[in-house]
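Minimal example, chain plus ribose-5-phosphate.
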Amino acid sequence: MLIIGCSKAQKLAKRVARKLKVEYSKLIVRKFPDNEIYVRFDKNIKNKDIVLIQSFYNNVNDALIETIFAAYTAKDLKAKNVTLVATYFPYFRQDKRFNYGEAVSIEVITKVLCKCLDKIIIINPHLHRKNSLKEVFNIKVKELSANGLIAEYIKKKFKNRVIVGPDRESYRWAERVARIINGDFVILKKKRISAYNVKLSFNKKIDLKNKDIVIVDDIVSTGTTLLKTIKFLRKHKVGRIDCICVHGIFVNNTLKKLEKYCRLISTNTIPNKRSKIDVTNLIAETLISKTI
Ligand code: R5P
Protein backbone atom coordinates (compact mmCIF):
# COMPACT_ATOMS: atom_id res chain seq x y z
CA MET A 1 0.00 0.00 0.00
CA LEU A 2 1.24 3.49 -0.85
CA ILE A 3 -0.43 6.40 0.93
CA ILE A 4 -0.49 9.61 -1.07
CA GLY A 5 -0.98 12.88 0.80
CA CYS A 6 -3.00 15.21 -1.41
CA SER A 7 -2.68 18.93 -0.83
CA LYS A 8 -5.48 19.36 1.75
CA ALA A 9 -4.68 16.37 3.95
CA GLN A 10 -0.93 15.86 4.00
CA LYS A 11 -0.46 15.93 7.76
CA LEU A 12 -3.25 13.41 8.34
CA ALA A 13 -2.09 11.18 5.45
CA LYS A 14 1.41 11.08 6.91
CA ARG A 15 0.01 10.11 10.32
CA VAL A 16 -2.07 7.31 8.76
CA ALA A 17 0.99 5.97 6.89
CA ARG A 18 3.07 6.11 10.06
CA LYS A 19 0.37 4.31 12.02
CA LEU A 20 0.16 1.55 9.39
CA LYS A 21 3.92 1.49 8.82
CA VAL A 22 3.43 1.78 5.05
CA GLU A 23 5.10 3.90 2.42
CA TYR A 24 4.06 7.57 2.19
CA SER A 25 4.49 10.04 -0.61
CA LYS A 26 3.29 13.59 -1.04
CA LEU A 27 1.43 14.40 -4.24
CA ILE A 28 3.30 17.14 -6.09
CA VAL A 29 0.81 19.89 -6.88
CA ARG A 30 1.63 23.22 -8.48
CA LYS A 31 -0.31 26.03 -10.05
CA PHE A 32 0.50 27.69 -13.35
CA PRO A 33 0.24 31.49 -13.55
CA ASP A 34 -3.22 31.19 -15.16
CA ASN A 35 -4.38 28.92 -12.25
CA GLU A 36 -4.28 25.65 -14.16
CA ILE A 37 -3.20 22.83 -11.86
CA TYR A 38 -0.19 20.53 -12.31
CA VAL A 39 -0.13 17.16 -10.53
CA ARG A 40 2.64 14.55 -10.38
CA PHE A 41 3.33 11.33 -8.45
CA ASP A 42 6.80 11.28 -7.02
CA LYS A 43 7.01 7.47 -6.74
CA ASN A 44 6.48 4.54 -9.05
CA ILE A 45 2.85 3.53 -8.58
CA LYS A 46 2.61 0.60 -11.01
CA ASN A 47 0.91 -2.46 -9.46
CA LYS A 48 0.54 -0.73 -6.09
CA ASP A 49 -2.52 -0.21 -3.92
CA ILE A 50 -2.73 3.56 -4.02
CA VAL A 51 -4.61 5.38 -1.27
CA LEU A 52 -5.18 9.06 -1.95
CA ILE A 53 -6.07 10.99 1.20
CA GLN A 54 -7.74 14.32 0.57
CA SER A 55 -10.12 16.81 2.14
CA PHE A 56 -12.17 19.48 0.38
CA TYR A 57 -12.23 22.93 1.97
CA ASN A 58 -11.24 26.51 1.16
CA ASN A 59 -10.53 26.14 -2.51
CA VAL A 60 -12.88 23.15 -2.89
CA ASN A 61 -12.91 23.13 -6.69
CA ASP A 62 -9.11 23.17 -6.99
CA ALA A 63 -9.00 20.24 -4.59
CA LEU A 64 -11.53 18.39 -6.74
CA ILE A 65 -9.61 18.91 -9.97
CA GLU A 66 -6.37 17.87 -8.24
CA THR A 67 -8.03 14.68 -6.97
CA ILE A 68 -9.51 13.82 -10.36
CA PHE A 69 -6.11 14.37 -12.04
CA ALA A 70 -4.39 12.20 -9.42
CA ALA A 71 -6.93 9.36 -9.54
CA TYR A 72 -7.03 9.30 -13.35
CA THR A 73 -3.23 9.34 -13.56
CA ALA A 74 -2.90 6.55 -11.01
CA LYS A 75 -5.15 4.34 -13.16
CA ASP A 76 -3.34 5.41 -16.31
CA LEU A 77 0.02 4.44 -14.76
CA LYS A 78 -1.40 1.00 -13.90
CA ALA A 79 -1.84 1.24 -10.15
CA LYS A 80 -3.42 -2.02 -8.96
CA ASN A 81 -6.17 -0.30 -6.97
CA VAL A 82 -7.00 3.34 -6.45
CA THR A 83 -8.82 4.31 -3.24
CA LEU A 84 -9.81 7.80 -2.22
CA VAL A 85 -10.19 8.59 1.47
CA ALA A 86 -12.13 11.84 1.60
CA THR A 87 -12.04 13.09 5.16
CA TYR A 88 -14.62 15.69 4.14
CA PHE A 89 -16.43 15.32 0.81
CA PRO A 90 -18.16 18.40 -0.64
CA TYR A 91 -21.36 19.13 -2.59
CA PHE A 92 -23.57 16.65 -0.74
CA ARG A 93 -25.94 19.47 0.12
CA GLN A 94 -26.77 19.95 -3.58
CA ASP A 95 -28.16 16.44 -3.92
CA LYS A 96 -31.34 17.40 -5.74
CA ARG A 97 -32.62 19.89 -8.28
CA PHE A 98 -34.39 22.34 -5.96
CA ASN A 99 -35.25 24.67 -8.86
CA TYR A 100 -35.52 24.01 -12.57
CA GLY A 101 -32.20 24.29 -14.41
CA GLU A 102 -29.91 23.62 -11.43
CA ALA A 103 -27.00 21.20 -11.59
CA VAL A 104 -27.31 18.29 -9.16
CA SER A 105 -23.67 18.87 -8.24
CA ILE A 106 -23.05 15.74 -6.19
CA GLU A 107 -24.15 13.53 -9.10
CA VAL A 108 -21.84 15.24 -11.59
CA ILE A 109 -18.80 14.94 -9.33
CA THR A 110 -19.39 11.37 -8.25
CA LYS A 111 -19.93 10.23 -11.85
CA VAL A 112 -16.57 11.68 -12.86
CA LEU A 113 -14.76 10.22 -9.83
CA CYS A 114 -16.26 6.77 -10.34
CA LYS A 115 -14.49 6.59 -13.70
CA CYS A 116 -11.06 6.71 -12.08
CA LEU A 117 -11.47 5.17 -8.61
CA ASP A 118 -11.93 1.60 -7.38
CA LYS A 119 -13.06 2.53 -3.86
CA ILE A 120 -14.08 5.57 -1.90
CA ILE A 121 -14.12 6.03 1.86
CA ILE A 122 -15.82 9.13 3.27
CA ILE A 123 -16.05 10.34 6.86
CA ASN A 124 -19.57 11.48 7.85
CA PRO A 125 -20.86 12.28 4.37
CA HIS A 126 -23.74 14.75 4.57
CA LEU A 127 -26.36 12.24 3.49
CA HIS A 128 -29.48 14.29 3.66
CA ARG A 129 -32.02 13.06 1.15
CA LYS A 130 -29.89 9.99 0.28
CA ASN A 131 -29.79 7.00 2.58
CA SER A 132 -26.44 5.60 1.63
CA LEU A 133 -23.30 6.34 -0.36
CA LYS A 134 -24.30 3.48 -2.65
CA GLU A 135 -27.02 5.75 -4.03
CA VAL A 136 -24.41 8.17 -5.36
CA PHE A 137 -21.33 6.06 -6.17
CA ASN A 138 -21.31 2.91 -8.30
CA ILE A 139 -17.94 1.72 -6.98
CA LYS A 140 -17.04 0.17 -3.60
CA VAL A 141 -17.96 2.61 -0.85
CA LYS A 142 -17.39 2.85 2.88
CA GLU A 143 -18.97 5.41 5.15
CA LEU A 144 -17.00 6.15 8.29
CA SER A 145 -18.42 7.91 11.29
CA ALA A 146 -16.67 10.07 13.85
CA ASN A 147 -19.67 9.64 16.19
CA GLY A 148 -17.78 7.19 18.41
CA LEU A 149 -14.83 9.56 18.74
CA ILE A 150 -17.13 12.49 19.54
CA ALA A 151 -18.97 10.41 22.15
CA GLU A 152 -15.64 9.42 23.72
CA TYR A 153 -14.58 13.09 23.85
CA ILE A 154 -17.85 14.11 25.51
CA LYS A 155 -17.55 11.33 28.09
CA LYS A 156 -14.01 12.39 28.92
CA LYS A 157 -14.54 16.16 29.05
CA PHE A 158 -18.15 16.84 30.08
CA LYS A 159 -20.62 15.69 32.73
CA ASN A 160 -24.43 15.43 32.50
CA ARG A 161 -24.88 17.17 29.18
CA VAL A 162 -28.01 17.21 27.06
CA ILE A 163 -27.08 16.64 23.42
CA VAL A 164 -28.83 18.94 20.97
CA GLY A 165 -29.04 18.32 17.22
CA PRO A 166 -29.86 21.51 15.34
CA ASP A 167 -32.00 19.98 12.60
CA ARG A 168 -33.93 16.90 11.52
CA GLU A 169 -31.06 15.23 9.69
CA SER A 170 -28.77 15.61 12.72
CA TYR A 171 -30.26 12.44 14.23
CA ARG A 172 -27.47 10.70 12.27
CA TRP A 173 -24.84 12.28 14.53
CA ALA A 174 -26.47 14.05 17.52
CA GLU A 175 -28.95 11.32 18.40
CA ARG A 176 -26.40 8.56 17.77
CA VAL A 177 -23.77 10.27 19.91
CA ALA A 178 -26.37 10.71 22.69
CA ARG A 179 -27.26 7.03 22.50
CA ILE A 180 -23.59 5.97 22.75
CA ILE A 181 -23.10 8.04 25.90
CA ASN A 182 -26.54 7.10 27.17
CA GLY A 183 -27.51 10.76 27.52
CA ASP A 184 -30.59 12.92 26.98
CA PHE A 185 -31.05 14.54 23.61
CA VAL A 186 -33.35 16.74 21.62
CA ILE A 187 -33.39 17.28 17.88
CA LEU A 188 -34.58 20.68 16.71
CA LYS A 189 -36.71 21.45 13.69
CA LYS A 190 -34.91 23.82 11.33
CA LYS A 191 -36.38 25.74 8.44
CA ARG A 192 -33.71 27.28 6.22
CA ILE A 193 -34.83 30.62 4.81
CA SER A 194 -31.45 31.39 3.14
CA ALA A 195 -27.71 30.62 3.57
CA TYR A 196 -27.62 33.11 6.46
CA ASN A 197 -31.13 32.71 7.89
CA VAL A 198 -32.81 29.71 9.59
CA LYS A 199 -35.84 29.27 11.93
CA LEU A 200 -35.85 26.75 14.82
CA SER A 201 -38.33 24.98 17.08
CA PHE A 202 -38.37 21.93 19.41
CA ASN A 203 -39.61 18.58 18.11
CA LYS A 204 -40.81 17.50 21.56
CA LYS A 205 -41.74 19.03 24.92
CA ILE A 206 -38.57 19.41 26.98
CA ASP A 207 -37.41 21.61 29.85
CA LEU A 208 -33.80 22.65 29.32
CA LYS A 209 -33.67 25.32 32.03
CA ASN A 210 -30.18 25.41 33.62
CA LYS A 211 -29.19 22.25 31.72
CA ASP A 212 -25.68 22.17 30.23
CA ILE A 213 -25.70 21.46 26.53
CA VAL A 214 -23.47 20.02 23.83
CA ILE A 215 -24.67 20.85 20.32
CA VAL A 216 -23.52 18.18 17.87
CA ASP A 217 -23.56 18.87 14.13
CA ASP A 218 -21.80 17.36 11.14
CA ILE A 219 -20.79 20.62 9.43
CA VAL A 220 -20.23 24.16 10.64
CA SER A 221 -19.77 26.38 7.62
CA THR A 222 -21.15 29.93 7.93
CA GLY A 223 -22.09 29.20 11.54
CA THR A 224 -25.67 30.37 10.89
CA THR A 225 -27.25 27.12 12.11
CA LEU A 226 -25.10 27.06 15.22
CA LEU A 227 -25.61 30.70 16.12
CA LYS A 228 -29.38 30.46 15.71
CA THR A 229 -29.36 27.27 17.78
CA ILE A 230 -27.40 28.96 20.57
CA LYS A 231 -29.72 31.99 20.57
CA PHE A 232 -32.77 29.72 20.55
CA LEU A 233 -31.42 27.65 23.47
CA ARG A 234 -30.54 30.75 25.46
CA LYS A 235 -34.16 31.91 25.24
CA HIS A 236 -34.93 28.66 27.06
CA LYS A 237 -32.47 29.62 29.82
CA VAL A 238 -30.05 26.71 29.36
CA GLY A 239 -26.74 26.52 31.24
CA ARG A 240 -23.35 26.23 29.53
CA ILE A 241 -23.20 25.53 25.78
CA ASP A 242 -20.39 23.71 23.96
CA CYS A 243 -20.46 22.65 20.35
CA ILE A 244 -18.78 19.73 18.61
CA CYS A 245 -18.81 19.25 14.86
CA VAL A 246 -17.23 16.69 12.59
CA HIS A 247 -16.27 19.04 9.76
CA GLY A 248 -15.24 22.54 10.84
CA ILE A 249 -15.34 24.41 7.54
CA PHE A 250 -15.65 27.79 9.31
CA VAL A 251 -15.81 30.04 6.25
CA ASN A 252 -14.44 33.58 6.51
CA ASN A 253 -14.35 34.67 10.16
CA THR A 254 -16.97 32.18 11.39
CA LEU A 255 -14.75 30.71 14.09
CA LYS A 256 -14.00 34.11 15.60
CA LYS A 257 -17.67 35.07 15.45
CA LEU A 258 -18.83 31.82 17.10
CA GLU A 259 -16.23 31.77 19.84
CA LYS A 260 -17.98 34.74 21.44
CA TYR A 261 -20.98 32.47 22.07
CA CYS A 262 -19.66 28.98 22.76
CA ARG A 263 -16.62 26.74 22.98
CA LEU A 264 -16.09 24.85 19.74
CA ILE A 265 -14.40 21.56 19.02
CA SER A 266 -14.08 19.74 15.72
CA THR A 267 -12.36 16.67 14.36
CA ASN A 268 -9.34 17.06 12.08
CA THR A 269 -11.17 16.04 8.87
CA ILE A 270 -10.64 19.72 8.06
CA PRO A 271 -7.62 21.01 9.95
CA ASN A 272 -8.24 24.16 12.01
CA LYS A 273 -7.19 25.48 15.39
CA ARG A 274 -10.16 23.82 17.10
CA SER A 275 -9.63 20.34 15.62
CA LYS A 276 -9.00 18.35 18.79
CA ILE A 277 -10.54 15.00 17.82
CA ASP A 278 -8.18 12.90 15.73
CA VAL A 279 -9.51 10.61 12.98
CA THR A 280 -6.14 8.97 12.15
CA ASN A 281 -6.97 5.62 13.78
CA LEU A 282 -10.44 5.53 12.27
CA ILE A 283 -8.90 5.78 8.77
CA ALA A 284 -5.97 3.47 9.49
CA GLU A 285 -8.16 0.71 10.94
CA THR A 286 -10.49 0.86 7.95
CA LEU A 287 -7.66 0.64 5.43
CA ILE A 288 -6.39 -2.60 6.92
CA SER A 289 -9.77 -4.13 7.65
CA LYS A 290 -11.46 -6.43 5.21
CA THR A 291 -14.73 -4.48 5.32
CA ILE A 292 -14.22 -2.76 2.00
C1 R5P B 1 -27.19 21.13 7.45
O1 R5P B 1 -28.07 20.42 7.08
C2 R5P B 1 -25.95 20.70 8.16
O2 R5P B 1 -26.13 19.61 9.00
C3 R5P B 1 -25.35 21.86 8.93
O3 R5P B 1 -26.21 22.21 10.01
C4 R5P B 1 -25.15 23.05 8.04
O4 R5P B 1 -24.56 22.65 6.84
C5 R5P B 1 -24.31 24.08 8.72
O5 R5P B 1 -24.12 25.15 7.83
P1 R5P B 1 -24.00 26.61 8.36
O6 R5P B 1 -22.88 26.64 9.38
O7 R5P B 1 -23.65 27.43 7.13
O8 R5P B 1 -25.33 27.00 8.92
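The CA atoms of residues 94 and 105 lie 6 Å apart. The mean pLDDT is 95.
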